[in-house]
């Protein structure tokens, strides 16, 4: 199904889940549980909506989660007032402002140099350590790494050797819609660039076959590396070295360029 605003599939799923949570709340309500959901959606008042968000806050959900659910419902209730929804509501029920508390912005989470060395040391293959080092330096999301092609790395050879940091094209995951990406540039140091080149010169990589446009990173079975495989790789490494919980999908990865350059220092 195409999204009218060209939202990504993950955004559509998130909005759908937020609406589902609201419907479950209505269904479990002692006061409203016997009324059909469709009827409630067309008639619930601002006071009824505020009561729902208050219940979320009382359940100790994070302010950011509550605000996210309100944003989804707000857009849905506005849509119910449009011709596409047959104008089943005369007004959305929302005032001009949000009903929930504004979330406080948090500092990005990151892993320390010591934690990174522990993670890298828990990996068994240089190809895995190379990916981890690449992500740590460039700050790429796991979903963006499979979009980096060998040709993108090769193009960096055209820069003068006086450049200590090189601009690498990234096909980002923040574009709208399934088929859209938002391009940007990330800096990669000469040290990490050289490490990726060494990985590309290995027999494991060179004899993997594939198309002319080849991913910059492959898994240990010489197949295309996926976002799920990267997540599992990091999760397994974290478990092996007993690091405390760290969300590698959303964490900000700080740059660190020197201490893990050579494979020998990475545990080989």
Keywords, please?
single chain; 268 residues; mainly alpha; hpI Integrase, Chain A; 2 domains; two-stranded antiparallel ribbon; 2 strands; 6% strand; disordered C terminus
Question: Can you offer a commentary on this structure?
Answer:
The chain contains ten helices and two strands. It is mainly α and 268 residues long. The protein folds into two domains: 9-85, no CATH class; 113-266, Orthogonal Bundle (hpI Integrase, Chain A), CATH 1.10.443.10. It has a two-stranded antiparallel ribbon with strand order 1-2. The longest helix has 19 residues, at 9-27.
Quick rundown:
This protein has helices at residues 9-27, 37-43, 46-58, 63-79, 113-121, 126-138, 150-154, 190-200, 203-206, 227-240; strands at residues 165-172, 182-189.
Low-confidence parts, pLDDT < 50 over ≥5 residues?
Answer: 247-268
CATH topology of the largest domain: hpI Integrase, Chain A
Order of secondary-structure elements: HHHHHHHEEHHH
The amount of helix comes to 40-55%
Total number of beta strands = 2
CATH class of the largest domain: Mainly Alpha
Give the SSE layout.
Layout: H1 9-27, H2 37-43, H3 46-58, H4 63-79, H5 113-121, H6 126-138, H7 150-154, E1 165-172, E2 182-189, H8 190-200, H9 203-206, H10 227-240
Antiparallel strand pairs: 1-2
Helix pairs in contact: 1-4, 5-10, 6-8
């Amino acid at each position: 199904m195409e999204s009218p605003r060209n939202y990504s599939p993950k955004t559509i799923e998130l909005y759908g889940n937020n609406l589902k949570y609201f419907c479950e709340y209505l269904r479990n309500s002692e006061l409203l549980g016997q009324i059909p959901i469709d009827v409630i959606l067309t008639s619930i008042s601002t006071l009824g909506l505020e009561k729902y968000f208050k219940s979320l806050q009382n359940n100790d959900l994070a302010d950011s989660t509550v605000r996210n659910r309100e944003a989804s419902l707000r857009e849905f209730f506005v849509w119910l007032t449009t011709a596409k929804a047959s104008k089943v509501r005369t007004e959305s029920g929302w005032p001009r402002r949000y009903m929930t508390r504004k979330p406080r912005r948090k500092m990005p989470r990151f892993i320390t140099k010591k934690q990174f060395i522990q993670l890298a040391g828990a990996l068994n293959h240089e190809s895995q350590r190379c990916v981890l080092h690449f992500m740590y330096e460039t700050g790429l999301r796991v979903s963006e790494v499979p979009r980096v092609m060998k040709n993108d790395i090769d193009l960096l050879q055209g820069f003068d050797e006086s450049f200590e940091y090189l601009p690498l094209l990234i096909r980002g995951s923040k574009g709208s819609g399934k088929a859209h990406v938002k391009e940007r540039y990330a800096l990669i140091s000469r040290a990490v660039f050289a490490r990726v080149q060494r990985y590309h010169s290995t027999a494991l990589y060179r004899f993997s076959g594939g198309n002319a446009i080849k991913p910059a990173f492959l898994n240990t079975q010489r197949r295309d590396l996926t976002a799920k495989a990267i997540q599992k790789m990091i999760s397994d490494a974290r478990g092996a070295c007993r690091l405390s919980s760290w969300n590698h999908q959303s964490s900000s990865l700080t740059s660190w360029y020197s201490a893990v350059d050579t494979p020998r220092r990475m545990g080989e």
